[in-house]
Design a protein that fits this description.
Length: 347
């Protein structure tokens, strides 16, 4: 075993009995390479997730925190941070996996680098579809030029350049995170990862990455999936703006330093892009949800005044729909519902 500091693996779980064994089996494999502790935060579980996890006590150093209420991933991760005793924090979703040898490669980065956050590439699996994350070429520490280049790519195409979107697949130096005072914003049930990572960047933490695959991300299409629920909550679009506050602060800082122009235009495009994605996800629900509900959600999103203003700065991205932004710009939610209905029928 390579000598490396203790890694605290933090797993928030809510009704995860269908995949918790698969997740913990991957952690068990990683434990052969790296010293680790497992902090499993059960929040609002009504199934056998905890019972299944108990079976690993003889094989893994597992600590389980149980909360009867559905705290959400942000609060659950904050509990894990406060419980952690390791030198490094590693966030793992209960339906994802640590690929074989991934933590060992992360350990090698620990031993040779000096950054606060160590980032790997990841594989995204959705059914039979697999794709790899987009990073800048090569493996190196982010200097300002690299970081700015990646962030501007992310702002333009936030669902392609996702390295800073997620908290998983990374090692965070615990002392550095604690020193910033940054925690996950518990008012957010979406984009809390973005808010967390950009808050750390604003505090001056350094990021280093490798193009090696160090995480396996599974898109869960079940009803409890946060991706499926995107945009469902009350005031969903308003909370996008809350989540993106540190992104805005960083871009405004760069604008003040003369490094970019018109941070507000960047932010308007990012807000519009995220809102359109959530609208598309509502559209997909026309196949299996109550039509009145879907029509209400479409009208609610399209009529949002901030989205209406932001659409002036939306820049069409390669491979994306032209019809949806066009109908949103014209505030034609009824035609948009007919479009989603047609797509649902011919699917």
């Amino acid at each position: 075993m390579n000598v490396c500091p203790l890694v605290s693996i933090i797993i928030p779980a809510q009704n995860a009995e269908a995949f918790i064994n698969r997740c913990l089996d991957s952690v068990l494999g990683a434990s052969r390479d790296v010293s680790l502790e497992v902090i499993l935060v059960l929040n609002g579980c009504k199934d056998k997730t905890g019972e299944l996890a108990n079976a690993y006590f003889d094989y893994l150093p597992v600590r389980i925190h149980v909360d009867e209420s559905a705290l959400g991933p942000a609060a659950a991760r904050n509990i894990g941070i406060k419980m952690a005793e390791g030198s490094w924090l590693y966030f793992l979703d209960a339906d994802d996996l640590i690929p074989e040898g991934a933590l060992l490669r992360h350990c090698e980065m620990m031993n040779s680098k000096t950054s606060d956050v160590l980032v790997g590439s990841y594989i995204q699996i959705a059914g039979v579809s697999t794709k790899r994350s987009h990073l800048l070429d090569g493996a190196k520490k982010f200097d300002f030029k690299d970081l700015q280049e990646y962030i501007l790519k992310y702002v333009y195409e936030p669902y392609i350049y996702t390295m800073l979107v997620h908290c998983w697949g990374k090692l965070y130096l615990r002392d550095s995170v604690i020193a910033t005072g940054v925690l996950f914003d518990e008012s957010l049930d979406q984009l809390e990862d973005v808010n967390f990572n950009f808050s750390l960047i604003l505090k001056g933490l350094s990021f280093e990455y490798t193009d090696q695959v160090l995480y396996q991300y599974h898109i869960n299409s079940g009803p409890n999936s946060l991706s499926v629920q995107s945009g469902d909550g009350p005031n969903a679009l308003e909370r996008i703006e809350v989540a993106y506050m540190p992104v805005r602060a960083l871009l405004e800082k760069w604008e003040g330093e003369g490094k970019i122009k018109k941070a507000s235009n960047y932010m308007a495009h990012l807000f519009a892009t995220t809102s359109l994605l959530w609208l598309i996800r509502v559209g997909k629900k026309f196949r299996h949800k109550d039509w009145a509900y879907c029509k209400f959600k479409v009208a609610q999103i399209v009529s949002n005044s901030d989205l209406r203003r932001s659409m002036r700065f939306y820049r069409e991205m390669p491979g994306t729909s032209r019809i949806i932004p066009f109908l949103v710009r014209l505030n034609l939610d009824s035609l948009l519902c007919l479009y989603f209905k047609f797509k649902a029928i011919v699917k």
